[in-house]
Amino acid sequence: MPFRLNRRRWVLLMGSAPLLAQTAAPAPEQRSDKAKTDVEQVSQKLAAVDVPINVEPSFRFTA
Amino acid sequence: MGRHKTNLDESTLAFATIGELGAALRKHEISCLELTKYFGERLETQGPDYNALALSLLKDAKKAAKDVDWYIKRERFGGPLQGIPFAVKDLLSVADYPTTWGAKPFAEQVFDYDAKVIHKLRSQKAILLGKLSMVELAGGGGYKSASASLQGPGRNPWNKQYWSGGSSSGSGAAVGAGLVPFALGSETSGSILTPASYCGVSGLRPTYGLVSRFGAMALSWTLDKVGVLARSAEDCGLVLHEIAGADDDDPGSAHKSFYYTPQYYDNLKDLKIGYAEIDFAEWPAEGLRPAFAQALAAVKSLGAGMVESKLPDFPYGPIISCIIGAEASSVFESLIRSGRVDQLADQGQIEGLKASMNYSALDYLKAMRIRTQIQQAFRELFANVDLLVAPTKLDMPDKADGLFDETVPKRPDTKGVVAGLVQASNLCGLPALTVPCGFVGGLPIGLQIVGRPFSENRILALGVEFQKRTNFHRQQPGKIAT
After folding, report:
1. Which 38-57 residues of chain A touch chain B by CB within 8 A?
2. pLDDT of residue A4 exceeding 60
3. What does pTM read for this prediction?
4. Strands (E), B174-259
5. CA-based nearest residue in chain B for residue A51
6. Positive or negative, the Cα torsion across B63, B64, B67, B73?
7. Domains of chain B
């Protein structure tokens, strides 16, 4: 059976690496949304931790 | 190489320790100028191969070397760093030369003073050869590729297809490739340990506050430390001896000194070392497990008491993310608000820094209060053990080109010591040493040793003993002896 270079094969043969690289990089808007979501998730995880009322933050103010 | 005959030939000079180089200088086997030219030219010619060189200062270094030779010729010997070349991460200011912090928005930045650590090393007549590349702004926004640097992706001296690690990328690569005998780096959370491990060198992160950060870029005031990457644990001790100490110019200074005293090493048999079998057997990527098993066996053979341990259970990742994010977004507030942040190379950094401004005061204070609890939990842990050991990194480095692989690896459900150790020990300001402990596929892996605050001598003692019984730290890229 003769080999026919259809569009699908062409993409598989020639385009896979560079095309994948291009599609792998998220758009700036996606990065922005992801970064904001990450911050929200961190806040939620911190909120879920119970800390006794008498525990002070781990830094000192010196007069 | 030069007019003098030395036991250090071309194949060994580049990878000689500070002690070996110092002995050669004092025996007049090589002059300081010859040594400076040798390493300076290596750094200039080979540094760019690894994208490790930010700025050569060889011209000034030659002048300083001639001055040192004047003293050495007259047998006026100083400390162990006299005449030893070194380089520093481009996060430390050198008067009147660019200090870029690895970031385009600061490419033209010049300070009129030296960082305190550089002043201290110069006063010991160590020779500053240049500044080394780094991940932009020490990676505070969260970077997604090795290209997040003014010099391009840091390349690993053992295989240039792989990353050298960050954020002290150039420091790791330059020492690993034998371009400098030692380098200074900095760590907020992993930035010394990671490149030291990936590049097959010894890396020491001192206790928070032991080494002045005056003249260093701030990323996180409550986490930043300046430390050493060198050929051996002993070399780390020699350098720390000179750079440690109180500094009124650093608000985080602990006002403590450090004297490297190997003569007073603890008897290792009296030490209790905390570890977890699962950290070596199941947590690393599969291909790394046999090498880590051998490393653990080597630690056990030292004769110390081995105590199966477990890290206190806290959400270390979110806590340190919040603290770095909140402090870094305050440090770089004007960069972010002005929009100049968009000049950074890495989109992850840009968006991460912007998003970090969303942390609330409540988030930050909560993280800092949990941090207090973590410190208390670690005090209790260290009541039962003197040191903790674990793999430094659980996976091989990412490739230098392209985006990092963000696939979350499958790990065991049971936790030992290694999970969260880098974040936890940084949150507690604990000192840590990483030493090379094997090779997998031609790339080095590292073993981390963590101790109580200001227990650097004990950590170094274990590192030195480990290196007496293994030769991983004496290997050279392209010439691994089996």
Report:
1. 38-43, 45-47, 49, 51, 55-57
2. no
3. 0.93
4. 182-187, 202-205, 225-230
5. B370
6. negative
7. 9-482 (3.90.1300.10)
